[in-house]
């Protein structure tokens, strides 16, 4: 810390020394000047006394000395008398020597006779006096001859005083030596006293101020101590706070980076399908929106290709979601290989993919891409132990034409409608959108609305299709197939309205109605003597999913009095696989005595081990395979395999869609027990059925 006391001491000491060093000599100079003035006044007075007392002899001497040599003057009588008088006048005064110069600067009189005759013309004192001024000089003399002998170590004031004549002209000069030794001594000792006094006063002042300063220094040190302690505490607090801030900052940075990661993950998830990593619906819509505007500006064309996997539902239902997911990933990567870099492939959800093709010059280019997409499915997908054969249906909409530049959804919806048309043409097809498809889509909506009140309006009818024994051709049963007589749409076939009923959930009420109506009809026939051995009813997965299904079934059986052993329920492979606890539910149905058949067999992906566990008695070979008999060796091979399987697993087999005798004989040759198809009869209303199959009495 700055040492105020030391600083003060040093500066004060220097100031005191300086003050003493300046004030002492100043005092001496002033006093000396004063003393010189007084002594000079005395010398002037003394000269006046001399001049007055020795006026005549002195004047004579002054006059006579001019032009005479020194020895002549020295010998004059006047000189002797002047000398006597001079000594007399000097007696008792401090004047110790008197000299008289004539105008020529010669000493014509001196109390020291040896000096008479000397010349001092060039002496400054003489010069001043001859010009009318008085000049004094203070000298220190080691020895000087005086009236009473020689004086040693004396301070002498020599004054040159002009001697004025009557006419006030300077006739000569007095030089008077006055012994001022006592005064000078006194002055010197006074100077020391003054110096000592100054030192003492300043020392006292210094001491008092020192006390004040030391006290101030104490206060300052105390304050500094406190400030230092406060600063130390503050520094500690600042250090701690800095550390805390660093930690908080680090936490913040970590949080920010976590948030950034989460945000980028969220962004990624917001725009990507987590399963396949492809762009999702939102991403596709935004890109299409942007592309539409760009394409409109550049006067170009673009295409939207809606891709749907034809058999994905069956795979998913029969082999489980794990396999389904893996299949979707494999499909996405295979599709990606065929899409150009500038195009965009996205997954809309489920088994629906969509592709945006930009900068389209010709429709052919789109057809090529659609063809490539379909061709991509020619090779089977290997998922685990499964080798899965799939096909894809592609619907295409084009811009401009199939949607405005601000109608992203129109283009997507139209491509979707085109895809449905492609699907209806058979598996593995593509189709361009046409405006009539929108009409069909609207019809579908209208159909759903009409379906809702069709049950209440009693617009449904149950038709029956015969099932015959392959060898004897005898009636062994009938399949109940629903028909809709709509006042607005006319007769609507199940292939049109069952999917709509399934999608809308209306199938539950409709399916239960068919079940009840079939049982009621069966019992009516039985009571009236037409004994049909068995009747089959189709079940939708939506019905099975209902927890109250068994209760509803029991109630129908109870209400109608139907013998459960005469009832056969047909479930598609995919329905059985899709239903979580199918085995347990089917067991319950079996316990009731109801027969079970697996419909559309061969189109799904049932595993043999699972099939073995199912309490099913019958397999129904799908119509699509029967259709290929005699035309497609692949279909025939599948039928043979199904027959082998059924034999080894002890299933009864029904072939549906049998239209020709050739098909019937092929199936008979393989040991198929029952046939169903136009060859033996179409599905007809109960009256016609009875009329056809009643045995004449
Ligand atoms: N070309 C041709 N077709 C033949 C031949 N023999 C039978 N068919 C048709 O094949 C379909 C067989 O029924 P499905 O496989 O259960 O397929 C049925 C079934 O899955 C569903 N369905 C019909 N009625 C019901 C029902 O009451 N409930 C449920 N859940 N589905 C039903 O609608 C599908 C179609 O029914 P339909 O149009 O009646 O068509 C029936 C039948 O008319 C033939 O020799 N040639």
From TrEMBL:
It comes from the Bacteria. Residues 444-697 form the EAL domain. SUPFAM superfamilies: EAL domain-like, Nucleotide cyclase. Residues 213-265 form a coiled coil. InterPro entries: Biofilm_reg_signaling, EAL_dom, EAL_sf, GGDEF_dom, Nucleotide_cyclase, Rev_trsase/Diguanyl_cyclase. The keyword Transmembrane applies. Residues 300-435 form the GGDEF domain. Keywords: Coiled coil, Membrane, Transmembrane, Transmembrane helix. The chain crosses the membrane at residues 6-27, 191-212. The keyword Membrane applies. This is EAL domain-containing protein. It comes from Dechloromonas hankyongensis.
């Amino acid at each position: 810390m700055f040492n105020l006391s030391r600083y003060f001491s040093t500066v004060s000491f220097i100031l005191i020394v300086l003050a003493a060093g300046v004030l002492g000599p100043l005092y001496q100079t002033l006093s000396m000047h004063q003393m010189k003035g007084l002594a000079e006044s005395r010398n002037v007075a003394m000269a006046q006394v001399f001049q007055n007392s020795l006026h005549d002899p002195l004047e004579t001497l002054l006059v006579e000395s001019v032009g005479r040599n020194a020895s002549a003057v020295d010998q004059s009588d006047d000189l002797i008398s002047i000398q006597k008088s001079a000594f007399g006048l000097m007696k008792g005064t401090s004047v110790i020597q008197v000299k008289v110069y004539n105008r020529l600067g010669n000493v014509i009189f001196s109390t020291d006779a040896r000096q008479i005759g000397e010349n001092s013309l060039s002496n400054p004192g003489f010069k001043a006096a001859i010009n009318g001024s008085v000049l004094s000089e203070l000298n220190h003399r080691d020895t000087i001859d005086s009236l009473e002998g020689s004086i040693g170590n004396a301070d002498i004031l020599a004054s040159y005083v002009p001697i004025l004549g009557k006419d006030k002209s300077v006739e000569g000069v007095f030089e008077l030596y006055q012994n001022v030794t006592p005064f000078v001594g006194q002055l010197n000792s006074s100077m020391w006293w003054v110096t000592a006094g100054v030192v003492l006063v300043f020392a006292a002042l210094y001491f008092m101020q020192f006390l004040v300063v030391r006290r101030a220094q104490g206060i300052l040190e105390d304050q500094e101590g406190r400030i230092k302690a406060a600063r130390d505490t503050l520094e500690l607090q600042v250090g701690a706070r800095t550390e805390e801030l660093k930690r908080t900052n680090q936490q913040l940075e970590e949080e920010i980076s976590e948030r950034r990661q989460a945000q980028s993950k969220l962004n990624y998830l917001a725009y990507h399908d987590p399963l396949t990593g492809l762009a999702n619906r939102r991403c596709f819509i935004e890109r299409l929106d942007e592309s539409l505007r760009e394409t409109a500006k550049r006067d170009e064309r673009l295409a939207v290709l809606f891709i749907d996997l034809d058999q994905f539902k069956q795979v998913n239902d029969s082999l489980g979601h794990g396999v389904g997911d893996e299949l979707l990933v494999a499909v996405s990567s295979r599709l990606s290989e065929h899409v150009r870099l500038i195009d965009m492939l996205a997954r809309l959800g489920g088994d629906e993919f969509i592709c945006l093709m930009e900068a389209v010059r010709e429709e052919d280019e789109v057809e090529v891409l659609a063809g490539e997409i379909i061709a991509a499915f020619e090779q089977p997908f290997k998922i685990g132990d499964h080798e899965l054969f799939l096909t894809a249906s592609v619907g295409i909409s084009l811009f401009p034409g199939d949607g405005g530049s601000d109608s992203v959804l129109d283009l997507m919806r139209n491509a979707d409608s085109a895809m449905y048309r492609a699907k209806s043409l058979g598996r593995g097809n593509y189709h361009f959108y046409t405006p009539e498809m929108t009409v069909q889509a609207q019809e579908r909506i209208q159909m759903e609305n009409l379906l809702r009140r069709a049950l209440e309006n009693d617009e449904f009818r149950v038709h029956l299709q015969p099932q015959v024994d392959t060898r004897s051709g005898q009636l062994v049963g009938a399949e109940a197939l629903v028909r809709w007589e709509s006042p607005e749409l006319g007769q609507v076939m199940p292939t049109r309205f069952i999917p709509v009923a399934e999608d809308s959930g209306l199938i539950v009420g409709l399916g239960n109605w068919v079940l009840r109506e079939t049982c009621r009809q069966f019992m009516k026939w039985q009571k009236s003597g037409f004994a049909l051995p068995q009747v089959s009813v189709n079940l939708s997965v939506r019905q099975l999913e209902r927890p109250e299904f068994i209760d509803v079934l029991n109630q129908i059986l109870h209400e109608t009095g139907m013998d459960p052993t005469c009832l056969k329920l047909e479930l598609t492979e995919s329905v059985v696989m899709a239903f979580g606890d199918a085995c347990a539910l089917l067991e319950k149905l079996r316990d009731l005595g109801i027969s079970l058949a697996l419909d559309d067999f061969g189109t799904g992906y049932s595993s043999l081990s699972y099939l073995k566990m199912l309490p099913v008695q019958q397999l129904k070979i799908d119509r699509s395979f029967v259709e290929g008999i005699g035309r497609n060796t692949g279909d025939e091979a599948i039928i043979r395999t199904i027959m082998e399987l059924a034999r080894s697993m002890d299933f009864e087999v029904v072939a549906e869609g049998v239209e020709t005798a050739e098909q019937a004989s092929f199936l008979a040759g393989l040991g198929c027990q029952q046939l169903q198809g136009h060859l033996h009869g179409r599905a007809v209303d109960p009256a016609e059925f009875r009329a056809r199959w009643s045995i004449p009495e």
